[in-house]
Amino acid sequence: MNLIVAVDKNWGIGYQNSLLVRIPEDMKFFRSETIGKVVVMGRKTLESFPGGRPLNDRTNIVLTRNPAYQVKGAVVCHSVEEVLEELKKYPSEDVYITGGGSIYREFLPYCQVAHVTRIDHAYEADTYFPDIDAMPEWKLTGQSEEKTYFDLEFTFCRYERQER
What we know:
Number of domains: 1
CATH architecture: 3-Layer(aba) Sandwich
Mean pLDDT: 97
CATH topology: Dihydrofolate Reductase, subunit A
Shape: globular
CATH class: Alpha Beta
Structural class: alpha/beta
Strand content: 25-35%
Number of helices: 4
Largest sheet: 9 strands, mixed
C-alpha cells in the first residue's frame, strides 16, 4: 500500500480543510500516480475536492464515522477494518492513502511506500503528517532534483518501509 502527501518544513499538510499550497507539478504527479488506482480518503478530504465529488478515473474509498453518509461514485466505509477488508479486492501496490491527517495516521502502519512532496517553506497549518524522517522503519530511497514553483522550492521524495 502507498501513501501520497505534500508536506511543508514542519510536516504540515493542511489548514482549515484546504491544502497549504497548490503546486501544479505536484498536482500532476498526484494524478499520474493515482489514475486507474484506488484512493482512500476521509470524508473531509473528499469534501475539499471540487464539487465535493470523487476523483475521476480512480476507485474512491471514503472513510467516515457517519453511518448515513453516502456519496455517488465512491465506496463508503465506517471503520479502518472495513476499509482494509474492502482493499483486499485490489493489488496492494494499486492502493494510495490520500489523507487527511487522521487517515494518514490510521493507515501509515499498513503502507510500504510513501510518496512525499517536501515543500521548503513553513505555512500556518492545523493538520500534520507524522514525521517519518524520525521513524527508524522508514528510509528515504529516492529524491528528485530540487524544483521551483515561483519562489517555492520542493522535492519529490520516496520513502520505503524497511523490514525489521
